[in-house]
Amino acid sequence: MIGAITALLVCQLAGEVAVRALPLPVPGPVIGMVILFGALLARRRPAPEALGGTADGLLANLGLLFVPAGVGVVLFLPVLARDWAPLSLAVLAGTLAAIAATGRVAQALLPKEALLPKEAPLPRDDP
Amino acid sequence: MTPLAEIWVYLAQEPLAALTATLLAWLAALRIHAWSGRHPLANPVLIAVALLAGGLLAAGIDYRAYFSGAQFVHFLLGPATVALAVPLYRQFALVRRSALAATASIVLGGAFAALAGIGIALALGAAPEVVASLAPRSVTTPVAMGIAERIGGLPSLTAVVVILSGIVGAALGPVVLDWAGVRDWRARGIAIGTASHGTGTARALSVNATAGAFSGLAMGLNALATALLLPLLWGFFAG
């Protein structure tokens, strides 16, 4: 586990150094993610068990990690009060339009899958 | 000073109390989420943020004092972002055959999602930092916050709009896809994962395994594509 955590931190550190040295306008951890993804692709084997377990453990509680930053909205209550209309419309209409557009594009671009039944049942939304 | 006031000063300033409160709020939020039958509207992040923000406002505690403790949790966002490479790699192996068409759809969809948010916010006259906070809305929260910071947005506001976008996509996405006539499970997964990241992916996984795999891939690739392209384009148009 310590090995896996070290691997994650090494990738993050390399990413942070890279964005400052080059300089790239990209968050350092994202470059760290690219480095790790590239390393996994280069190995051409399933992800190491210890790394997989540590990543799963960290990502299973990903939501918790946003909480401290999310609480920071208390600093921006005046902004929320002023711009609630563009915020809510962009979130609602923007997201739904993006889902419809992406779905149509993907359906047009993807090669037809012979295995799929012609009339795939529509998903029920209830859990 | 009375002992009670001394205790209060300790609790309001030491990192231990803020860290403990964050974990307690998270556990309470998970309980409420489970009670609701894991309903997308009862999102645990949103509940925990509301509990803690309400607590800070009610007790008159400064956010910076709270963050001095909560930063130990916040620090893990970086390693967790790097760790996203592992599920991305697993999904990539699963969907390798349709990888090219999937990648093209995800990049186009991600660009559309960002532009739709920017366009709506600009049209309604939002402040520049609000537009910048909305731009990375469809990307998974840790990456979106990093992008917002880079382009002059407010990472905290971004965290909230990202989570809300995930909830909207998870709750209403399937209805919109039915309406748009998207019946291919792979395309449905790509649409949900591109526009509403992890929250949508969790929903897609609970409905159909193929949709879930493509949704996971879309979440990872869109995070990557938006993080690489949005700051560059933003600098080009705004600078």
TrEMBL record, chain A:
Q: Which domain of life is it from?
A: Bacteria
Q: Which InterPro entries has this protein been placed in?
A: LrgA/CidA
Indicate where this protein resides in the cell: Cell membrane
- Please give the start and end residues of each transmembrane region: 24-42, 62-81, 87-106
Q: Which GO terms describe its cellular component?
A: plasma membrane
Its membrane topology, per UniProt? Multi-pass membrane protein
Q: Which UniProt keywords apply?
A: Cell membrane, Membrane, Transmembrane, Transmembrane helix
Q: Does the keyword Transmembrane apply?
A: yes
> What name does this protein carry?
Holin-like protein
**What organism is the protein native to?**
Falsiroseomonas stagni DSM 19981
From TrEMBL, chain B:
Q: Which UniProt keywords apply?
A: Membrane, Transmembrane, Transmembrane helix
What's an example GO cellular component term for this entry? Answer: membrane
Task: Please give the start and end residues of each transmembrane region.
Answer: 7-29, 41-61, 67-89, 101-127, 157-180, 213-237
> What compartments host this protein?
Membrane
Q: Which domain of life is it from?
A: Bacteria
InterPro entries given for it? CidB/LrgB (IPR007300)
What is the recorded membrane topology of this protein?
Answer: Multi-pass membrane protein
The protein, known as: TIGR00659 family protein
